[in-house]
Amino acid sequence: MSDQTPAYPIEHAKTVIVGQSVHRLDALGKVTGETPYPGDIDMDGQLWMKIRYSDRVHARILSVDTSEAAALDGVVAIFTAADVPCNEYGLIIYDQPVICGVGSTKAGADIVRCLADCVAVVVAETEEIAAKARDLIKVTYEDLPIVTDPEAAMAEGAPQLHEKYPRNILCHYKIRKGDMAQGWAQAEVVVEGVYTTSWQEHAYLQPEAGLGYIDDQGRVTVIVAGQWAHEDQKQIAHALNLPLDQVRVIYPAIGGAFGGREDMSVQIVLALAAWKLRRPVKIIWSREESILAHHKRHPIKIYAKWGATREGKVVAVESTVIGDGGAYAYTTSKVMGNANLLATGPYCIPNIRLDTYGVFTNNIPAGAFRGFGGPQAIFAAEGQMNKLAEALGMDPVELRLRNILREGDLLSVGTPLPRGVTIDRVVAECARRSGYWEETPTGWRRKPIAQPAERHKRRGVGFACGFKNIGFSFGFPERAWATIELHGDAEIERVIVRQASAEVGQGAHTVIAQMAAEAVGVPLHKVTLITHDTAQTDDAGSSSASRITFMAGNAVRGAAELALQAWRNEERPAIGTFKYRPPATTPYDPETGRAEPNFAYGYVAQAFEVEVDTETGQVTVLRVVSASDVGRAVNPELVRGQVEGAVVQAVGYVLYEHLVVENGVIKNPYLSTYLIPTVGDVPHKVETVILEYADPIGPWGARGMAEMPYLPVAPAIAAAIRDATGVWFDSLPMTPDRVYLGLAAAGVADGAR
Q1: Can you tell me whether residue 290 is helix, strand or coil?
Q2: pTM here?
Q3: Whole domain around residue 505: which residue ranges?
Q4: Are the beta carbons of 105 and 85 closer than 8 angstroms?
Q5: Number of compact structural domains in the chain
Q6: Per-residue pLDDT tens digits for 190-231
Q7: Which of 28, 49, 414, 700 could disulfide-pair with 594, CB 3.0 to 4.6 Å?
């Protein structure tokens, strides 16, 4: 195969259009099957790889016997811990061995801390031989005590997973705002709740796969699916102790991500094998391997106590937030930092005491997943708001608008939101356009809804809202690069855009091309995008944090301005390279929590209508109205796709997806037993309300929005079930068996009205 990354010519339109729904530039190749994904790519003479995982949740490896496996005809090499030059990796901190075992360069690499740990890598002439050899490897362990409950892990005397983190606490964030004694004295109504959420599997269509080889310039090259090619390159180079420019990462088409590809999977071991053997090496995970070995959404438990005045002003919040980070850090410190910020919702609250913990356990590592701690935190915050509304006898929309953050209001961290706060308008527009609410001279009021004829079925409506950061937070040096080349003589005939943002199915490359055409002032068909290759692009950051449209758009605008200036100076080709840096953010103060956490936000509100079958516990989502402020919809059809996809994925999280984990062991690593929504489970109607209140520093006013429609789904469904049945559900997932048992306990599971 060629070492050149294919460029994408864009031929779908002849006019410059930011704000129009042009077809995705990758659509044809993907629907026809012509577009290659990592598992589709082969090279002459390639070998096959299989990974041997740990047999223990927590143990010290005493020996790894590869002799029988190595003797198998067709086995080319078996790599163990001693073969990795710098045996560590990690997105936030280097705390996980590439391969666990004896003889490592790093202390502590002889300990496995979860079943996802790699203990050996087999490379053979065929995939079948590699699999057979993997199963012949014999590992001798000394079992160590395990801890799988994060609250138990924090107790004195609990088994310790990492020496540097006493009581297994990776991170502890505090918020101390106002005077809690005064706040509770003012509170005339107090509601308390304990909210629990569970793991969620990303379930992207394409399991992990990749191909490692040495390219024509001698670089260790890995073709893989990920979310941040330059970060993958950095971690590979670190583990192999190679100069950065001797490592190359290429992304072909990526079959979904949702945060699940932020952390390493096959990248480093493929690079290791290709580097050692000087031959191409390929691996494709099965679905079972994918579920067992890549990280999950964080299970988070929140103890919440909220107080309000009779007039509906929230005056005090006290919460403890505990997240199960699993065996290694991954992005736990960042996820829990986000949960800490969002645990009080989008409300102006004068008195707050909040403690948030990220904790190591022997469970599967937890990491990035769409919403990044927001869905869990907002489930609790919005649940508390809905309970306060009920306790006060006040409409839930009205209560929100009495407390919602507005321009200049202080967040829980003691600083105002960046300019362009619109959550009040988003809440009002969602309520209005849903048709379930009406605005009266005395405030907002819910209209009654029709009930089904069947006595065992009941319908209800729920409301929730939320907000979330756009871009990286809490002091991370956020940035994105773009280069634009203008080719032609008297007129610009061709525009080449180099921008490394990963296209993980969201349509980012189409939007980047639209913004480039707009910035240069040419028809879209003149734009060619080169991306997904560290050898041809600069770092654009991760395709996460709802940041790509915002960050890439600003980088492209800056590069276009420089290129046009060069064009006017008659340089041919005219080239502009620009690094965009947004306003700086700051980390939490360790004692007070004061921070300037983010430079931009997206805002969302949703109304859900559900039907509950009281005989079976089945909850059916009938209608969703989702209103999002996107600043500017660069491509409205792609915005609608993001909303609909987020809603369906979140409905799965709330109602269907139950990862069964016992003593650190995943019991249902198959899509036959871990149930995700099918076409029959999609809400009957999803109505997308696109609101465009320009962000002051967004490109063409655009905000990021891909995560926002996910955030309020859980509390909105919980409120709708309460409205239908009179029963609150504060634990996820709300599977039919759990709902039925909850209804039965409340005496409403027999269908009687």
Answers
A1: helix
A2: 0.96
A3: 8-28+479-580
A4: yes
A5: 3
A6: 999 999 999 999 999 999 999 999 999 999 999 999 999 999
A7: 414
